[in-house]
Amino acid sequence: MNQTISEKILSQHAGKPVKAGDIAIVRVDGVMATDATAPFAIKAFHQMGGKKLWDVERVSLIIDHASPAPNETVANLHKLMRVFSAEMGCRLYDIGEGICHQLMVENAHVKPGDLFLGADSHSPTYGALNAFGIGVGSTDLAATMLTGKSWLKVPKTIKITLNGELKKGVTAKDLILFLVKQLGAEGANYQAIEFTGETIKSMTLASRMVLANMSSEMGSKTGLVDPTGLDLWYPFEPTFPDAGADYVRELTFDVSNLRPQIAKPHSPENVVSIDELKGTKVHYAFIGSCTNTRLEDLHAAAHVLKGKRLTSTRLIIAPASKKVFNDALKDGTIQILSDAGATFITSGCGPCVGSHLGVPGDGEVVISSTNRNFQGRMGNPKAQVYLGSPAVVAASALAGEITEPTE
Amino acid sequence: MTTAHVYPIDNIDTDRIIPGKYTKTLDMSALASHVLEDLDSEFSKKVQQGDILVAGNNFGCGSSREQAPIALKAAGVSVVVARTFARIFYRNAINIGLPVIEVEHHNIQSGDSISVDLEHGVVINHTKNETYQATKMPQQMIDILNAGGLVNYLVQHGDYV
Q1: If you write DSSP's letter for every residue of B15-71 in order, what string do you get?
Q2: A141-194 pLDDT, tens digit each
Q3: Closest-CA residue of chain A to B56
Q4: Residue A345 has pLDDT above 80, yes or no
Q5: Distance from CA of B95 to the nearest CA of A (A)
Q6: Which residues in chain B have their CB less than 8 angstroms from residue A186's CB?
Q7: pTM attached to this predicted model
Q8: Which value does ipTM take for this structure?
Q9: Of B89, B144, B103, B92, residue with least CA distance to B4
Q10: Chain B residues with CB inside 8 Å of A143's CB?
């Protein structure tokens, strides 16, 4: 049987060969929930009669969505997570450690070939590692915390081949925005995506994470990146698709002439070339989220802002993790960005998800490095949110209007 | 009476079903009072226990937040009918015991009286005396819904079977 990457990984976890369309009960390698999803998962776990976790080493709880707690309700949800993890003996990343997907990758809690359930819709991020990451809700997660298993339908796969060298200033974020536009918000619903091609093979892990992360904006079950050229700090066994594997759709793009891309309000599929939006007034710029605040993103922003000073626009930055922050501190990036006038906040998801910190005002225009610009997403339905790469966000913050980095 | 509330819109995302700023709670009534408020500020006031929500394509796209189907259920919605559903929302709804059904062609208007037969995959419009074919869901999902959700299913079975 010629298999896709999804069929190979899921066959290993089902204990038998499976193909697209099959319903399989699978063994899971690990699970993760955040303060947005863990409280309901803990409640469901107790309701299921759960007394102990299936494997304490494979359960991670992360406080990142409203971190530190902005009010007493959230403080008590955080307390619930701390008490649960202490009683059960599982891993807890408390406030400030970082954003869930970044921590799972950084600390190698997810590895290539794994099947991982995250109670967060951006869990396809693990596809950057050539792992099968699925976003699930709290009750599904609770069931796996109890049993170590879940059930799923083996997805059909869309193969996307990207060829050509990206122009200077064009990044993985521009690529994925372009692809979300091509496929649409529902274009990969219930399906997996395999990203392959020459453009991918020289990409950093951080850039691969951007592609896999935003594959969820096409509805995909997961977004697996071809492991060729994947540079990790530990040895791993890559999973490649078989020649002759069965794809539901195959798309090939030459991306060598791609321009920076921007998603307009209020949908990530509402994408145009930056050229159509130049001059759009911006009040607030945000660099953050599980999509784009890794070290290479902060470097891109610092490159734009070095020696410059923000005047009309506020720039808020939430590094993806404490490690990212510390690395950027050591190499001088934080100083450059701070000198330019950027405000740093705790590593976490707050502004992206509208929980707290950095909520825009009525009618304000935001340019953001995040993954979603749904109406109300950043906490105010009367704001307009545009999505772009960190370099574009930094350049736009500096100019006070949507623009691309000069050079 | 199961009255339909029709929003013939595609891509009604989880932030519009329940904005992120309201999700950090275990209080169901707090969720219910804000359900769909950015789409229709009157929705939570006019929805009655047992009513049916009807939408377009890709209903529930976006976040994995289970608060989205929970908020609808807590507000009184008994079934969501849409052309298509986003993957995680669909699964979450079944897990919490909120039936969801995919109907490609229908003629339902707000105020119509509707009932749903999940086992046979049909939606019946009593007001217009019409029946619409729906996508039949996998047996695994019907089993979970029939148990009242995944919590009850696992309590009854002890494991996935």
Answers
A1: HHHS-GGG-S---HHHHHTTTTTTT-TTHHHH--TT-EEEE-SSBTBS---THHHHH
A2: 999 999 999 999 999 999 999 999 999 999 999 999 999 999 999 999 999 999
A3: A186
A4: yes
A5: 6
A6: 10-11, 57-58, 61, 84, 86
A7: 0.97
A8: 0.95
A9: B103
A10: 150, 154, 160
